[in-house]
Amino acid sequence: MVTGDVHLSERGTGPGCLVGTRLAFDLNTTLEETKRLNNEFFDCPNPEPGVPCFFYSHVFKPFFIIEGTVEGESDRFLDSYTFKVVGGGRTRGSVRNYSHEEILNFNSLSDSESSRQTLVWTYDDAPDSFRLTKEGFLLMSNASNRVRWLCQRNSPCGDLTPVNLLDPDFFFIIEVSNRETASSPFCEHTLRFELHAHGFPLDPVRGLFFMQMTMTVIQTILICYIGHTCWRLRQKTVNTKKRDGLDEQDGNQFKAGDVLVKVGSMLHSCFLQLYCIIFRIVQNPMLDHVIMLVVLFDTSTLIAQTFQGVTVRTGWCLSAVDSCLLVFYVVEAVFKILVRGRTYFRKPWNVLDFFIVFMSLLEFTLSLVQSAGGFSSRQASTLFRVLKTLKGARVFRALRLLKAIRFFKGLQAILLTCLQSFRSMSSIIVLMFLFLFIFTVIFREMFNESDPEHFGNIFRTIFTLFQILTLDDWSLIYMTSRDNGAPHIIYFLSLYIVVELFTFLNLFIAVLADNFQLSIRKKRQCKSQKSPDVKEGETQSGEKAVEDLEMSQAELEEEFHKEALRFASSDSKQSKRKIELISRHLQLLAAMDQHMQKYRSQACLLDNLVETFFTVRSFSVYML
Q: CA-to-CA distance for 172 and 463, rounded, in angstroms?
């Protein structure tokens, strides 16, 4: 049990109390039961002397004893009691006692109190017919004493931030008393002791703040890039006007209608340029390189979280990094869907990326809703049961590792060949399982008495035959049956190995190798025909959309030119010859602009073809 400097216990008061007895915290039993309940125990990275420390995410199951100060004997405390957090602080030196109103807010499970998002703890897996005091405090006992730290957002331990790279921790002052219970009216006990909780997770609302900051940085970079591109286009337009010798004073003669036409043309041109910029960003190989670096960094954080020491000490920081990286995946998916439209989902790798991003957003949204919503006392009992189920969505984070495959053409070819091979290998798999069950029945009936450990029932026999299929310890299985009077098992083992391993398994590998050869042959044929247009399906919709926007822009410019000529002709000072020259000049400019746009589109397509040619060539060299 804990030492005297950790807890403050009053002697029992009442006519039924024995002389020299007090309530004490049984630390040893609590540690053993908590470790058994959670299947693990994480001690504090920076423990405080004399203060028991527990991990925040673990269920805390306290035990108490009635300690005799005179004779030194102790008995298990079996009475009902109330469990309250009556003080706390970020450090042991800043621990303070809470007021009566704060104790009600942080511990009361009544509907009027728990809806304020101030609960520090709740019970875990408590029965439905729980008992509450008049003030809403839960009555606990040895049969129902499992505490789950909740630390809602408005509680003193809610939304903690780390002082350094280590996870946040908090010190609690716990008060246990049976004064408000009706089962022990003749002896009242009160105990106060300190607890040190560590490993507090990142609050989802703060994770949303990190996502917003990351999105702000990305938006700033995009705005700077778009502004720089628009400024270059503006300078090019001004230089073109100066070279053509257009008189700027003619613009001052336009009326309100001309201003609206010009503003509409400028807005349409800006949206067109914005779409073209996003199209260039998506088609730029630099985007793939950036996403590749993000995937590699995300992979390193996922691997780091598999180590318990890293998870316990830096889980808060790793969760913040994961929230920031999620923004990059979302921005990439949104840009590609805007540019490619429905054709984005025609490629299996894009469907896989979208599924991974969707599951990551779903996981974050569920945790955010749980953190932002209010819960009553009835909902608090099922809160963490739901969270345990929703934590299964975190396994989809491991699928982000598959995003790296689309950056390596060789890995894509291998994986696609394996998936395509399952169609031709399905018959072989069926035959393998059919013979497996045949041999299972034979071995079960003939050798269940000589080797019951391996052939005692149908499931053990199937497991043993799978083990023999890998040639693992098959000789030990033979010697066990031989020593028990069944040496003829060697004939059945040899027949099984020949049929399953040397025949069907090698045939399985042969089909897979043949499919790889067919894949390589197809790549060579595509190379010889000089038609490796693998990206044509992806860029077709984008190019079509750009052409439609260019056509609409040309029509808008033609309408603007007609309006300009109409107002120019209304001026009596302008000669008819000058109007014809201006009209011809504007038509030539429009034709030149249209040809330049077609030239840029063809040049972009040619660059994609050349890039695809060298990619397929490097893939062929890799496969050879």
A: 51
Question: What average pLDDT score do residues 228-237 get?
Answer: 74
Q: What is the pLDDT of residues 287-346, one digit of tens each?
A: 888 888 888 888 888 888 878 778 788 889 988 998 999 899 899 889 989 888 888 888
Residue 141 · residue 78 · CB < 8 Å: yes
How far, in Å, CA of 376 to CA of 90, rounded?
27
Which of 196, 151, 154, 153 lies closest to 173 in space, CA to CA?
A: 196
Distance CA(175)–CA(10), nearest Å, equals 11
- DSSP helix/strand/coil, 82: strand
Structure tokens at 570: 């209304």
Closest to 41 measured CA to CA, from 27, 28, 25, 54? 54
What is the rounded CA–CA span in Å between residue 298 and residue 318? 10
Q: What is d(CA 425, CA 427) in angstroms, rounded to the nearest whole number?
A: 5
Where does residue 258 rank: exposed (0-12), middle (13-18), buried (19+ CB within 10 A)?
middle
CB 493 within 8 A of CB 478: yes
* Cβ proximity of 133 and 139 under 8 Å: yes
- The sign of the CA dihedral 550, 556, 561, 562 is positive
Q: Which of 152, 203, 199 is nearest to 368 (CA)?
A: 203
8 Å CB contact between 315 and 167: yes
139-140 vs 147-149, strand pairing mode: unpaired
Q: Which residues of 49-66 are buried (b: 16+ CB within 10 A; e: fewer)?
A: eebbbbbbbbbbbbbbbb
